[in-house]
Amino acid sequence: MTQLGARFLAGSRSVTFAGVFSLMVFLLLGRGLYAVALGVISLGVAGQAVAMRGLCLSGSLKVLLMTGMILFVQGTLAASKAYGISPYPILWCLITVLGIWSLQQQVSGYSGYLQAISFVLVVFVFANLTYNLLWTHWPRYGKFGLFSNIHYMSMYAVMTLPIMFYAISKSLSFRVRCVMALTLMGNVWLLLATRSRPGYLALLSSALVVIPFIAPHFRWRFLLLMAGILAFLYFGNVANFAARVDDFAANFSHDERWEIWAGAFHLQKKSTALQWLFGHGIGAFYQDFKEIAWSRGIKTYLSAHNFFMEILYSHGLSGLVLVTVAYGLFFYRLASAAWDDESIISRRTGMLLLAVATAQLVHGVSTVPFFSRDYLLPLGFVLGASFVYIERLKRTV
Questions:
Q1: Is pTM, for the whole model, over 0.85?
Q2: What pLDDT sits at residue 300?
Q3: By the 8 A CB rule, do 227 and 200 touch?
Q4: CA spacing 20 to 30 A to 96: which of 43, 102, 161, 262?
């Protein structure tokens, strides 16, 4: 490569990093200018592809890109008309994955940008705690940003908590550890402030999924610590934790999700054989559910609040099988890579990614629409980082 070509490549990588980093900031602070960040990532990735005459994609990543394109094309073609709900978040997810993948040559392990990420997490927690405090005392203008829907705030809280644990364990500075520990406590308070029961379940699931990867003599200590924290939250009724849990247990059959699922099931039964196979298209559920809502006197919902029902209605059985198999294979590959990782330091990265991926899936499956920017953009970060981790591990074996 010529000197000019090397400079062009370095500049393209810098542009890509700026796009990925700014997208992370925009998402954590309420999405903001995410479209601008995606455009910057696209320019950076395109520049790298030109400079290197390709991006050297792994076989697994090629399968992911193909899967995403199939879902995009099918979700668009199956729709009988434009429903006003964009299918483009699928492509945005793939752009994010490519952006992270193309940066792997710049990152020395996963600790290369850990300080910058830690700083962003401190800003994320401080900004949202400040806003929540101000709104609580002066609720004149209502809530916006991540607090516009408590499940947005909850999902980002449970996804970032494992990263904070990781940052504390990796830092050699006592001062930094203290700052991150305080940030972690603030993040827990943000989660409690949302009172999101899916958030509680997601955090518990993300902790349980890493137990098999912990040294045997630490597992019981970890379980006892989890039990102690849950007991403290419940019996102390911290931030109405016990009240929310008791209400869920007592009124489980009256939860609004049952109302949505019943309507979604009624819609699905009206599908033709072709629609059962290929779906109604992205956005069709929201349009079709309006009739059910008006006839039953209930609220209109954007999605089925259930990934299986949502994907079945939009993409049919073919799409549901495709997404389920792809997601299952992703978790299997990630868990297998972390299990086979002989380096304790590197294995922590695999455990971190597995915890974050589990937290997002468990939280999102009954709350956030699957084919939305709110789910697929964070998923792009999870997939991109996981594919880089898996590929690096393969190269060291």
A1: yes
A2: 74
A3: no
A4: 161
